[in-house]
Amino acid sequence: MRKFFSVLLGVFLLAQLAVGKELVGIVAVVNDSAISVLDLMARTKMVVLSSGLDDTPELRAQLAKPVLENLIEEKLQAQEAERRGISVSDRELAAALTIVERQNGIREGQLNSWLADIGLPAVFFEDQIRAQLLWAKVVSTNLRPLVDVSEEEVEHELARLEANRGLPEYLVSQIDFYAGPSKPLDDLMEVAGKLLVEINAGANFGSIAEQFSDNALGNLGGDMGWVSPTQLLPELSDALSKMRPGEVSAPIVSAVGVHLVRLRDQRRVMEPDIREIRVDLVQIVLPGITGDSMTFEEKGVLEQISDTVRGCAAMEAMAKKLGGGSGSVGWILLKDLPEQFRLILSQLDIGQPSQPLFTGSGAHVMMVCERENPAEDINYEQLVRDRLERSRLDTLARRLLRDLRRSALVDVRL
Predict the structure, then answer these.
(1) Which residue from 182, 205, 202 is spatially nearest to 192, judged by alpha carbons?
(2) Longest distance between any two alpha carbons in the chain, whole Å
């Protein structure tokens, strides 16, 4: 059957077979709902296209099993929604499709044409979006009310954060493959390994998370937000401690399954990250000057600026007079400036010139006209509450899906 499926992948043209898809061979039956070969082929193609994977017959055949598992779970989710009397209206579906158009730079109302151009019938794509909306409604209307985070829990977590102040904290995206009777660990390792190869070759991590991750946050590209080592599985924490921002881990095995982790950034717990400070900046640049090579005249100019220029209007007037690379920089994040500038500009009094700063391009005198520090507006209590609620909701959603799978009659014919 696996060989037969590989042949089908190379032969069928999806765009020509949108009509009568239910008449094509069945690869799985979930309770009383069938998944056809065309369902599987279409979803595989969507995964390949949306994730930037290298589209080959071999890859599609390798993805068949994990993609089928996702389709089975979607059937279970849709059936659970129906059992609970939950539905998605045409208006809700249209609104979701409009969001997809905006996110992909497609003109409004042109999604179907775009899908046709890439050989994908719209009905298959709409099926996936509808399933996501149904499950989101199940989670929000039936599971979300079950989540209750007490003040004591929030206070306990805040105390824990305070005790860990200054320790590493990671901005993480994550792809989780949870183990189970239908998902043995060896199979999950194989899938994770193949996807890692594609990610390292340029495939989009977030898009792959949306298609493959078993975590409820998969629909958000696997974005876990900022997390400290103690909030993670020990295996993940250990891997992240050895990674640099931008890196993706090798497949990590834990008690619950297999994981791929992308470290997007790192900082210190409850310590302001000066890189995120925005400043409205004016600079005066004297090209080619170093601290050791200044002439008497150049030193005099720098001293004049430091002693007499006050306020951004005066600084801009001086910059205009000197010309060159001098003038208003405008609003800029400190992380976009040379590292030796960041600490100084985060603390420099507004409207006061800095001491000369030297780079390969010359001597710089900087002035901050305005400064915005997002750390000043952080509500740690609300952040902690949101994080605890999100974690608890993910656990409930995962538990419900696990129970649905255990009680379902699933006949896989692939």
Answers:
(1) 205
(2) 88
**Confidence (pTM):** 0.63
Quote the DSSP letter at residue 109: T
pLDDT tens sequence across 42-90: 888 888 877 777 778 887 887 888 889 889 999 999 999 999 999 999 9
State the DSSP string of 227-257.
Answer: E-GGGS-HHHHHHHTT--TT-BPPPEE-SSE
In degrees and rounded to multiples of 5, residue 16 shows phi and psi of -95, -5
CA pair distance 41, 111, nearest whole angstrom: 20
Alpha helices in 241-379 (DSSP H): 296-308, 312-322, 339-347
Of 211, 214, 241, 215, the closest CA to residue 227 belongs to: 241
Contact in structure between 183 and 410 (CB atoms under 8 Å): no
Calpha distance 148→318 (Å, rounded): 59
DSSP E strands, 105-180: 168-178
Token pair listed for 266? 């790192």
- Three-state secondary structure call for residue 105: coil
Q: Quick check: 405 and 182 in contact, CB under 8 A?
A: yes
Question: What six digits make up the tokens of 403?
Answer: 């129970």
Tens-place pLDDT, residues 214-253: 876 666 778 888 888 888 899 999 999 999 999 999 999 9
